[in-house]
From TrEMBL:
Organism of provenance: marine sediment metagenome
EC number in record: 2.3.1.39
Family matches, as SMART domains: PKS_AT (SM00827)
GO molecular function per UniProt: [acyl-carrier-protein] S-malonyltransferase activity
Listed GO CC annotations: cytosol
Catalytic activity line of the entry: holo-[ACP] + malonyl-CoA = malonyl-[ACP] + CoA
Lineage, uppermost ranks: unclassified sequences, metagenomes, ecological metagenomes
Protein name (record): [acyl-carrier-protein] S-malonyltransferase
Gene3D superfamilies noted in UniProt: Malonyl-CoA ACP transacylase, ACP-binding (3.30.70.250), Malonyl-Coenzyme A Acyl Carrier Protein, domain 2 (3.40.366.10)
Length: 336
């Protein structure tokens, strides 16, 4: 059965397309996909022209002078691959757009989600993400910030510890019930880590960044981004519903500047966002981009909520084939 044979949209499972953020990159990501779908190499050619470096060489490790883990290159690489995969799913597979209940992203992933929603062109997104990566990289070199992932403990202990460090350390990411990222001044985050360990928290991983992303310490970077959006980005009405994971709400064209600037200074509320969509009976979550990080987070949140959902990803060609078969089975791909 294909999508054309369904009687009405209510017969379909609702879908959320979700886009990963920085940290999901890895060497040779997208190699299989581009090998089978060569036309999408053009996305990387456009990105390379804008930032002045060959993105595919950086991803493959053939560029000895630049690293994929450099913020300037990781962000644009993830954006380019995620957008290419999005267009493959939405256009080449002819997915029934009426089934898409939300497009959402984790931090950087919101830029890919906005492209998916048609808020701006791919080229405009490249310039925007390229600028974001540049100013964040500059801040990384000059700031005295720090971030750390706290694993295996609930939010109450963390909030209690941070209560003694007000204005210095903040919750940056509510990733799942037992995975929280904190962000703030380097010395204060160090104090928080020591206190959390004293309280029995066994696993805390300092992140390899020198900035305090998703905290008020990013105000200057946020202001720069806002001015860039105002002067260089033409936003249009969205054709797919964009869901902000910082505001836990659907957002529209006139909201986007506030959403993207606020994202830098406020926390990613991933748990609340997924719980919201689960309550709306979204039944299929598709991770569009490199890796499977978001798939794992959604799986744990859904399990806690007692919801039986389908989780798919585009990490490897095998995963993409599984996605095609699953969406065909649900009748929401409009192909024979």
């Amino acid at each position: 059965m294909n999508g054309k044979n369904k009687k009405n949209t209510g017969d379909f499972k609702r879908i959320a397309l979700m886009f990963p953020g920085q940290g999901s990159q890895y060497p040779d990501m997208g190699e299989e996909f581009l090998g089978s779908n060569g036309k999408y190499s053009r996305y990387f050619e456009i990105s390379s022209e804008v930032i002045g470096s060959d993105i595919l060489k950086i991803i493959s490790g053939r560029d000895r002078n630049n690293s994929l883990d450099d913020t300037r290159f990781s962000q644009i690489s993830i954006y380019s691959l995620s957008c290419a995969l999005n267009d493959y799913i939405v256009n080449d597979l002819s997915i029934n757009r009426e089934c898409i209940d939300a497009v959402l992203g984790h931090s950087l992933g919101e830029y890919s989600a906005l492209y998916s929603s048609d808020a701006y062109s791919f080229e405009q997104g490249v310039k925007l993400v390229g600028y974001r990566g540049k100013i964040m990289s500059e801040a990384d070199r000059s700031a005295k910030g720090m971030m750390a992932a706290v694993l295996g403990t609930g939010i109450s202990i963390i909030e209690d510890v941070l209560g003694g460090l007000k204005g210095r350390v903040f919750v940056a990411n509510y990733n799942d019930y037992l995975q929280i990222v904190i962000s703030g001044y380097e010395d204060a985050v160090g104090e928080a880590i020591k206190e959390l360990k004293l309280r029995g928290v066994r696993k805390i991983i300092p992140l390899k960044v020198g900035i305090a992303s998703h905290s008020p310490l990013m105000k200057e970077v946020s202001d720069k981004l806002g001015r860039f959006i105002e002067e260089n980005v033409k936003l249009t009405d969205m054709k797919l519903p964009f869901f902000s994971t910082t505001e836990v709400a659907y957002r529209y064209r006139n909201d986007i500047k506030k959403t993207l600037t606020g994202q830098l200074t406020g926390p990613i509320r991933w748990v609340d966002s997924i719980e919201y969509l689960l309550k709306k009976d979204v039944g299929i979550f598709v991770e569009v981009g490199p890796g499977r990080v978001l798939s794992g987070l959604v799986g744990r949140i859904a399990q806690r909520s007692g919801r039986d959902i389908i989780i798919l990803n585009t990490n490897k060609m095998e995963d993409i084939e599984n996605l095609k078969n699953a969406l065909k089975k649900e009748g929401i791909i409009n192909e024979a």
